[in-house]
């Protein structure tokens, strides 16, 4: 939650949009000036939360390794949709937002650590240059950005957290 004055703004993605609109002169914009491009970015940012995250949760929570691997294969299908979205949204730039980082980059980028940990969790590489070359290249560029690299947890740390959570829930 963000408190701006005494007014709360809840949920990470909504906070990003709020900050982008409330403080337009404070750095690069996350949302484009064009209304269609803003709507498209909002759609794909919501798609991360609504489709990708819900598809990925069984990778994290699946009872067996086979359950987790099957879920990861479904995640690959969703990421293939992001491959197409990247091609359309980036306009040939390095990021979903074009030449600069935009809303979709931040929202999807916040999930990159877990996507990378998926391979160790179930044996399926979900961000794979063979199936999603544009997305894999984007992930490398985004993950290497100053400010991103320093705060993205490493795969081993995420795996340790996952093992702890699974043990607390009585999962193998």
TrEMBL record:
GO CC terms in record: cytosol
This enzyme's EC code(s): 2.5.1.18
Reactions catalysed: RX + glutathione = an S-substituted glutathione + a halide anion + H(+)
UniProt xrefs under InterPro entries: Glutathione-S-Trfase_C-like, Glutathione-S-Trfase_C_sf, Glutathione_S-Trfase_N, GST_C_Tau, Omega/Tau-like
GO molecular function, a single term: glutathione transferase activity
Domain GST N-terminal, chain residue ranges per copy: 1-27
Location of this chain's protein in the cell: Cytoplasm, Cytosol
Transmembrane domains' residue ranges: none
GO biological process, one term: glutathione metabolic process
Ranges where the GST C-terminal domain occurs: 34-168
UniProt keyword terms in alphabetical order: Cytoplasm, Transferase
PROSITE patterns per record: GST_CTER, GST_NTER
Signal peptide: none
Pfam families: GST_C_2 (PF13410)
Stated family: Belongs to the GST superfamily.
PANTHER family: GLUTATHIONE S-TRANSFERASE, GST, SUPERFAMILY, GST DOMAIN CONTAINING, GLUTATHIONE TRANSFERASE
Function: Is involved in the conjugation of reduced glutathione to a wide number of exogenous and endogenous hydrophobic electrophiles.
Protein name, entry field: Glutathione S-transferase
Naturally occurring in which organism (per UniProt): Panicum hallii var. hallii
